[in-house]
Design a protein that fits this description.
This protein is α/β, with parallel strands linked by helices and 257 residues long. It has ten helices and ten strands.
Length: 257
């Protein structure tokens, strides 16, 4: 009788373990292609997503144009978080992304930033001065924030004057690096990148008014290369709309539709 009780307890324990481990058996990996401006957000969102779903998120960061080209060339990504809305729409049109999966996950803000406190004034008037020899801008051909920077300088009628001073980053992350190292005194990056810095390292910045450039609508989309059932990728896109994700995104300075 004692052996029977032990056997029942043992079997019950094994059964419970199987039930508890069941979600892990369905855990999957999500490979995300993510625009560089959203790096800080993804670093904060990843543990929240993994804890909530049991899935693992692996993100690759770069300029939207670079990631778009990689996806068109068959790169094995499951989801694409762009810094514009054009690239996701084009992927749907070409059959490389799933129609109906697209949505705007954030609206970005552009900032003129210097790592030096007091260097950039609150109105961006330093752009009209001759105090600097270099200014950093992300490649406007592949980086939407770089494109917004060019639109801003065009609206201010300063593009022709400042273009000879450009130091061009491959993406917005490299552009920030140029400035943070002191190699370039100021430049245009995402406001979210500034907000992600510790308060003591934020230097000085000017938030560029929306009216000076086209809206930076950042689109997300499920890719055709997603895993067979795409459940993990779909779960991640759904998570981006959740209250906890939206809170993180807004705290970094993005607007959320």
């Amino acid at each position: 009788m004692r052996c029977t009780r032990l056997s029942i307890r043992t079997l019950a324990g094994l059964f419970l373990s199987v039930i508890l481990l069941q979600p892990l058996a369905h855990a999957d990996e999500v490979k995300a292609a993510v625009a560089a401006n959203f790096t800080a957000a993804i670093k904060q969102l990843t543990p929240l997503f993994e804890q909530k779903t049991g899935h693992k998120l692996v993100a690759s960061f770069g300029a939207t144009g670079q990631l778009y080209a990689q996806i068109n060339n068959g790169a094995p990504f499951d989801v694409f978080l762009a810094a514009d809305d054009q690239a996701p729409q084009q992927l749907i049109a070409s059959g490389n992304a799933v129609a109906g999966s697209h949505f705007i996950y954030a609206r970005g803000r552009l900032a003129l930033w210097s790592s030096t406190p007091g260097y950039v004034d609150s109105n961006g008037d330093i752009l009209k001065s001759n105090k600097f020899e270099k200014i950093a801008v992300a490649n406007p051909k592949i980086a939407p924030y770089g494109k917004a920077a060019i639109e801003t300088l065009t609206a201010l009628k300063l593009l022709e004057q400042l273009q000879p001073k450009f130091v061009t980053g491959e993406n917005i992350a490299q552009t920030q690096q140029f400035i943070s190292t002191g190699n370039v005194p100021l430049g245009f990056i995402a406001l979210a990148q500034v907000n992600a810095l510790p308060a003591t390292e934020r230097g000085s910045f000017w938030v560029v008014p929306d009216k000076l450039h086209e809206p930076i609508e950042q689109g997300a989309v499920l890719l055709k290369n997603a895993n067979a059932d795409a459940s993990a990728a779909t779960a991640f896109l759904a998570f981006l709309k959740s209250p906890e994700a939206v809170t993180v995104i807004r705290e970094l300075g993005y607007e959320v539709p």
